[in-house]
Amino acid sequence: MKHYKCYLQLGSNVGDSMNTLHNARIALSENGINILAESAIYLTEAWGNTDQQSFHNQIVLVNTHLKPKDLLQRILTIEESLGRVRSKKWEPRVIDIDILFYSRYVVLSKELKIPHPHIAQRRFILEMMVEMESNFAHPIHRKTMQELLDICKDTLKVTLIS
User: Fold this and answer.
1) What HEC string does the chain produce?
2) Which of 7, 53, 93, 125 could form a disulfide with 13 if both were Cys (CB 3.0 to 4.6 A apart)?
């Protein structure tokens, strides 16, 4: 059975976010998504809809045998089990788990886009990715995470907290 290394972004800005991120990591591990490495946790201003609480964010490098759409379904189930209710885009949320990269594959379908389409515009993701693997090359932009961070125009505040 083939395994794939993937980067996932975990975020929370409702309730006890630090505990929610901890529970999300446990849930991933219990669902065949093995965590290999974790970034530090950062407090980041909300992106998209900035009229809400800042987010606690973290990136995890995982190893999984799940294909991209199966990984997405597993993640949606985990989010729901942790209390995520979806009603509108960029709303406050108990937990958000995004697939940033699935190995070096590109997936462009109606329900799933990998790499995540907003990576290059989000300073908080780039800072965490640089911490994890600064020389990782974006398969579409063909630039490393450090190169993308160096040219990122996002000015939202990103603060290391742990």
Assistant:
1) CCCEEEEEEEEECCCCHHHHHHHHHHHHHHCCEEEEEECCCEEECCCCCCCCCCEEEEEEEEEECCCHHHHHHHHHHHHHHCCCCCCCCCCCCCCEEEEEEECCECEECCCCEECCCCHHHCHHHHHHHHHHHCCCECCCCCCEHHHHHHHCCCCCCEEECC
2) 53
